[in-house]
Amino acid sequence: MDQQGNKNAAQAFASAFAESLSATLANLTGTPWPFEAVDNLTPPTSNGTPQHFRLTVEGALHGECFIELYQAEATNLIGKIRKQAVDSLTSEHIEELASLFAASTQTLAVSIAEDYGKVTFKVDSVAELAFGGMFVVALKSTGDPDAPPMLLYFDGQLLNSLSSAPNRAERDEAEGRGIHPHNLKMVMDVELNVSLRFGKRQLPLREVLELSSGSVIELDRMVDEPVDLYLDGKLIARGEAVIVDGNYGLRVTEIPQPVSSHFFADRFGREEFTAPGSLRRSLGVRQGTKSLHFRRIAHGYPLSALLCVR
């Protein structure tokens, strides 16, 4: 994942945490107290010893996130929660802040479950930390523009976990790909034509007309690059070209997506697929037939795949 991808992932997580923190504070104080994740905000000037809280994330995401706030912001939070002025932080105040963040992470876990899956958080107060080289996002109180921001620091493990986590659509698609063998029994023995593509090249008409025996055409792929395996014009695998009993073969090294995804829609919709001729003939479909409907049941959901026969 590139730097921009890491930034977007951290910003999305910080925005979700800001919303959860805002909701928790509103419940505690009875008044709106919105926070938002701010991009390109200059970190606050050090004012005393910062207070740090560690969020340990487990489950669908893994890693640690640290909250940093200085005394001005910490006493501001405690004062508004207690509805009285607070001049300095005590151990009791720090425990209250830890409880505040713990309550916020419970809301956060629910809000991000659809995007990342089930996660759990553990919150504890820590001291004497250094954050050299860690990714940071600032949270700013929009209701009090003069209040100093708090900072969220992401360790590498959590940042990678956020960046590489599949989104909801990808998880739903993966879960909807389970194909029941009984529903495919009628076509499991149909032979489909696959082809290897070693490369391609665009040629002007003049060069095409000049082709003759002995002509050499340079393709756009190096000899050590993987070759592509296509089914009816759709890429289904990549691998290394090999020789098998004097014939070309393919040792598969990569499958970009489940082969079944080229045939079946996910459980919330349909997708079109041009049926290979061998499949049309096996099913007795005449040329010009508009569509065939297959239904299957997976994970308790009815699924339909629409084959557009041309």
Give the helices and strands, then pairings:
Elements: H1 3-29, E1 35-38, E2 51-59, E3 63-69, H2 71-82, H3 91-116, E4 119-126, E5 135-141, E6 150-154, H4 156-164, H5 168-175, H6 181-184, E7 194-197, H7 205-209, E8 227-231, E9 234-244, E10 247-254, E11 272-274, H8 277-282, E12 291-298, E13 301-308
Parallel strand pairs: 11-13
Antiparallel strand pairs: 1-5, 2-3, 2-4, 3-6, 5-6, 7-8, 8-9, 9-10, 12-13
Helix pairs in contact: 1-3, 1-4
Explained architecture:
There is one protein chain. The protein folds into two domains: 3-165, CheC-like (Chemotaxis protein chec), CATH 3.40.1550.10; 176-200 and 224-308, no CATH class. α1 crosses α3. The protein has helices at residues 3-29, 71-82, 91-116, 156-164, 168-175, 181-184, 205-209, 277-282; strands at 35-38, 51-59, 63-69, 119-126, 135-141, 150-154, 194-197, 227-231, 234-244, 247-254, 272-274, 291-298, 301-308. The strands form three sheets. The chain has a six-stranded antiparallel β-sheet with strand order 1-5-6-3-2-4. A four-stranded antiparallel β-sheet has the order 7-8-9-10, with no helix packed on it. It has 310 residues and is an alpha+beta fold. The chain has eight helices and 13 strands. It starts with a helix and ends with a strand.
- Class inferred from helices and paired strands: alpha+beta
Gyration radius, to the nearest Å?
A: 29 Å
Q: Tell me, what is the CATH class of the largest domain?
A: Alpha Beta
Average pLDDT over all residues: 76
Q: Tell me what portion of residues adopts beta-strand conformation.
A: 25-35%
Total number of strands: 13
What percent of the residues sit in helical stretches (DSSP H or I)? 25-40%
Spatial strand sequence of the major β-sheet: 1-5-6-3-2-4
Question: What kind of sheet is the major sheet?
Answer: 6 strands, antiparallel
Overall number of domains = 2
CATH fold assignment of the largest domain: Chemotaxis protein chec
CATH architecture verdict of the largest domain: 3-Layer(aba) Sandwich
Report the span from N to C terminus. Answer: 40 Å
